[in-house]
Specification:
Layout: H1 15-36, E1 48-49, E2 60-64, E3 70-72, E4 75-77, H2 79-87, E5 96-101, H3 107-120, E6 124-127, E7 130-131
Parallel strand pairs: 1-7, 2-5, 5-6
Antiparallel strand pairs: 2-3, 3-4
Length: 132
């Protein structure tokens, strides 16, 4: 007498877990690409340096125009607004700021921007230059 065998069941593809995985991947790639979007810079005549190094991608690029006005992420702001923006960014100690100033900007305006960054608690400040 032959042993009883249950009929073979055909495998099924479960679609709900597949949709969950695809949505997770979509959200993951969206979050990663948002971090990769670079800030738009302004056309500045940066000073040159023979010791220029490539800095890591900063959280904020602070542009100082020749008239002394400050532009961050395409928005003109005063020094108090810059300080508030940086202070409310989250963990300010880990915020990286790069200051890009036209070479015709008075040094005092540059120092005012650095002071605002330091008053906000930023400790990592880079200076944008062109390599020679």
């Amino acid at each position: 007498m032959l042993p009883y065998r249950a009929p073979r069941r055909k495998g099924r593809v479960e679609i709900i877990p597949m949709i969950d995985v695809m949505l997770f991947l979509l959200v993951f790639f969206i979050m990663i690409t948002l971090q990769m979007i670079t800030d738009k810079g302004l056309k500045l005549d940066l000073p040159t340096s023979s010791q220029a190094k490539v800095l890591p991608h900063p959280h904020f690029v602070v542009n100082i125009l020749t008239d002394g006005s400050v532009v961050v992420k395409g928005k003109h702001m005063n020094l108090v607004g810059l300080q508030h923006l940086l202070a409310t960014d989250g963990n300010v100690a880990k915020t990286d700021v790069t200051i890009a100033a036209d070479k015709k900007v008075p040094f005092q305006d540059f120092v005012h921007v650095m002071d605002s960054c330091q008053k906000a608690g930023v400790t990592s400040i880079g200076i944008a230059t062109k390599a020679k």
